[in-house]
Amino acid sequence: MEILAFGVQADEKPLIVQAFRDHHAVRCLGITLDRDTAPVAAGAEVVSSSVYADLGPDTLEILAAGGTRMIAQRSTGFGNVDLRVAEELGLTVARVTSYSPHAVAEFAWTLALAVNRRIVRASNRTRDLDFRLDGLMGRDLHGRTAGVFGTGKIGEAFARIAHGFGMRLLGWDVAENPACMQLGMKYVSRDQLLAESDLVSLHVPLMPETHDLIDAGALKTMKDDAILVNSGRGGLIDTAALVSELHEGRFTGVGLDVYEAEAGHFPLDPALRPVKDDALARLVTFPNVLVTSHQAYYTEDAVRQIVDTTVRNVLDYKAGRRSENVLVPRN
């Protein structure tokens, strides 16, 4: 059996090929899976998709009509999959439940430190042999307050790094994490966390209760010189409200690895599909904003774990086994 993998990055391909080598043939495609590219999968019993795939009803119907019976998503997120339609069509769907939390937590800190110390601006200057320090002043993080939204595995890893910097820790979650409390974290309300934190980092899942968690009111509650980092899901922040606050000159820095309308933009070549999103175009123009292309997970360690889990999901499907990774079971 040959697995057809969509949305495969160049760095990812050798890891996928190696992982499947002793089990099934795999063909890797750089194109994203959607209604326009789904016909390519005709005859493939198993396809593997990335988080950027558009697995809505049209795409799923094309896949099912072409003989696909299993979709192995290479991500934890599955909001891009219409699970109800998949079940109606008899498609098995599995995902990757977890991978290295350190990859995302460390990248969130990369964003925080980069905007705090004006690294991008400094790098751009020195490329022009401009070594002035004007406008590059940052702040010590030691002794300041880090607010962590979501204290699961990733949030805990982020908090441990903050603790290493000597920061005061505030947390917000539906359940308290004892490991975070041992670091000295105090759980508070959303508004208290926002009002007192010098650095706010988002690590909660996207669901109706957390959509626009950081809305216009939340942004107003934050300190004018705060740092905001989002390496979770784009829909956690009201982008229009954020642009409005940035226009008023607020915030030391904003680091965004995700964007609420990133589908169709991340990680595509702009020559193939020009960016026509006004809010995204506006965000990248602010000197205190750093936008990256949903790459927080993108370490060799994390991708290897994602790929290995994907292989196990395919093997489980072929053997008729079910695991916690299955979103829609095999009929």
From TrEMBL:
Pfam families: 2-Hacid_dh, 2-Hacid_dh_C
Entry-linked InterPro entries: D-isomer_2_OHA_DH_cat_dom (IPR006139), D-isomer_DH_CS (IPR029753), D-isomer_DH_CS1 (IPR029752), D-isomer_DH_NAD-bd (IPR006140), D-LDH-like (IPR058205), NAD(P)-bd_dom_sf (IPR036291)
Protein name (record): 2-hydroxyacid dehydrogenase
Residues of the D-isomer specific 2-hydroxyacid dehydrogenase NAD-binding domain: 110-296
Domain D-isomer specific 2-hydroxyacid dehydrogenase catalytic intervals: 14-327
Annotated Gene3D superfamilies: NAD(P)-binding Rossmann-like Domain
Keywords (A to Z) from UniProt: NAD, Oxidoreductase
Keyword set includes Signal: no
Family that this chain belongs to: Belongs to the D-isomer specific 2-hydroxyacid dehydrogenase family.
